[in-house]
Amino acid sequence: MVHSKSRKLDCRSPQSQISLPEAVGERLNRTACATVGTVMSEKMDDQQAMTPTPSGSRSDESVALRNWQLANGVAVLDSAYEYDEVEQNEMRSAKPWQKDPHYFKEVKISAVALLKMVTHSKRGGNLEVMGLMQGRVDGNAFIIMDTFALPVEGTETRVNAQSQAYEYMSVYTDLCENEGKKEKVVGWYHSHPGYGCWLSGIDVATQALNQQFQEPWIAIVVDPLRTMSAGKVDIGAFRTYPQGYQPPVEEGPSEYQSIPLSKIEDFGVHCKQYYSLDVNFFKSELDSHILSALWNTYWLNTLSSSPLLTNAGYINNQIGDLSMKLKQVEKRWARSDRTNDVIEQLDKAVKDAHTVCSELSCGVLMQHLKRAMFNHGETYDPNAQVRVDDEPIPDIIADDIVPAASIEDVEFSDEIVLVEAVN
């Protein structure tokens, strides 16, 4: 049992009493709006599932799109689309980034480029994918205007470009120049499905090599599984330090992120060889038409999908990883090891548990709200079989189905409540 300040959901039913910490409330708005991975990617490869959007749902679609833009902080910035070729050539000739390892501080990504990166990462599933980014440099910031995927073979832990990818890259960039597209390739992106945004040893070597011969160059990492689970794009931008450079001792990750136990060693060995940049998103007024076209009808999948089912494998891996971390702490604690290292390890495990709890609670709350809205007026019969097209579906555990509650029965109040985890 945990005592916490919360917002209480009372569905006036003995089986539907839920209390959530405030952190869940922050995630609710992000998850309730159509997240990039859930909204657009579930049926991107299934063209038969694409159906015209009913005219009556256009306003709902625009609301979902605005919610996604607010959740990810997409700002209107028309000036980012002004390309000065003379200025770019002068900056590339001056190479100010060679004098200061921390010259670049920020990366600004267009909303269209962001959607293309995340949908590509989502289609890859548990396999890593890779692509390149086109843009320019503006002062100490990268401006990412567009992206394109590379035909590479990835695994669950790494992705490497082969000769086919380099040929594709060369032909694609030549065609862009022929079409009058002035933005150069300024970096690469790849996915880390389920284990956070950071650079592995292979990533550090790849980025360092590109910074040596193709400056200016930036690396971006996207986690599609955490994006779907948290309801906000999980993304990071990085640049490596020059060979032989020693960063200040106090430098490190700007904020804590959960790293799976199997990846901690790789993360710890190389975490001092690169630094992260601030990531912001932008769009122009004209981008609204492109975003609407990309949005299409996939936002409707949010209403029919459940993050608890979509991310079941990822959630199981999170809980399993958390269990192993706690077992390590338990073994050291049993040997009377009370060092600060053990306390810090336990503190990180608690943070991971809080994150998992918040995401699961948010998913359960969304299911309650959907049932309250779409099953209004239906009665619940625990002995009835669920049927589809008059055919009974076997192996349905009726006791696990929560009775429907009317929307009038849902009320929120700020108070101290008890939160129980029911096994």
From TrEMBL:
Output the PROSITE patterns linked to this UniProt entry.
MPN (PS50249)
Per the record, the gene is: CSN5
Q: Which UniProt keywords apply?
A: Hydrolase, Metal-binding, Metalloprotease, Protease, Proteasome, Signalosome, Zinc
Residue ranges annotated for the MPN domain, each copy included: 107-244
The Gene Ontology biological process terms listed for this entry are: proteolysis
Keyword Endoplasmic reticulum appears in the UniProt entry? no
**Family to which the UniProt record says this protein belongs:** Belongs to the peptidase M67A family. CSN5 subfamily.
**UniProt-annotated stretches for the region Disordered:** 43-62
Q: Which organism is it from?
A: Parelaphostrongylus tenuis
Q: What's one GO-annotated cellular component?
A: proteasome complex
| InterPro entries xrefs | CSN5_C (IPR040961), JAMM/MPN+_dom (IPR000555), JAMM_MPN+_peptidase_M67A (IPR050242), MPN (IPR037518)
Q: What is this protein called?
A: Proteasome regulatory particle subunit RPN11
* SMART domains documented for this protein: JAB_MPN (SM00232)
Its domain of life reads Eukaryota
Ranges of compositional bias, category Polar residues: 48-57
From the UniProt record, list the coiled-coil ranges.
none
Which Gene3D superfamilies does the UniProt entry name for this protein?
Cytidine Deaminase, domain 2
Task: Show the GO MF annotations.
Answer: metal ion binding; metallopeptidase activity
